[in-house]
Amino acid sequence: MDNLELLNDVLEDKIRNQIFYNESAIMVRNPEARQMLLKFRDEEMRHIEILQKEIVAIENKPFIVTQMLQKLKS
User: Fold this and answer.
1) How far apart are the C-alpha atoms of 63 and 22, rounded to whole Å?
2) What pLDDT does residue 12 have?
3) Which of 17, 21, 56, 59 is buried most, with the most CB atoms less than 10 Å from its CB?
4) pTM for this one?
5) Of residues 68 and 55, more confidently modeled
6) What is the DSSP string of 8-68?
7) Dihedrals φ, ψ of 63, to 5°?
């Protein structure tokens, strides 16, 4: 498994967690528990944003082989 696959797997988990916290916050009646769940949800969203940026950076970064081939073509 490469780094990109690993990051995508972690991203999927974070999205599932965020959905769980959000749905739980909607159903819970205790205001303190709701606030805690919303805090967890928001923290997962921050993680999701970081992971998405990292994935985009990796996808846009040319591999060393690609760079070498470009030099050879020149």
Assistant:
1) 38
2) 96
3) 21
4) 0.77
5) 55
6) HHHHHHHHHHHHHHHHHHHH---HHHHHHHHHHHHHHHHHHHHHHHHHHHHHHSPPHHHHH
7) -75, 155
Q: Output the CA angle 64-74-55, nearest 5 degrees.
A: 30
Question: How many residues are present in the chain?
Answer: 74
Tens digit of each residue's pLDDT (9 = 90 or more) over 8-67: 999 999 999 999 999 999 999 999 999 999 999 999 999 999 999 999 888 887 666 555
Assign residue 61 a region: left if phi > 0, alpha if psi is -120 to 50, beta otherwise? beta
- Is 47:14 a contact under the CB 8 Å cutoff? yes
pLDDT of residue 74: 63
Distance (Å, rounded) from C-alpha 28 to C-alpha 46? Answer: 23
CB-CB contact of 44 with 14 (8 Å): yes
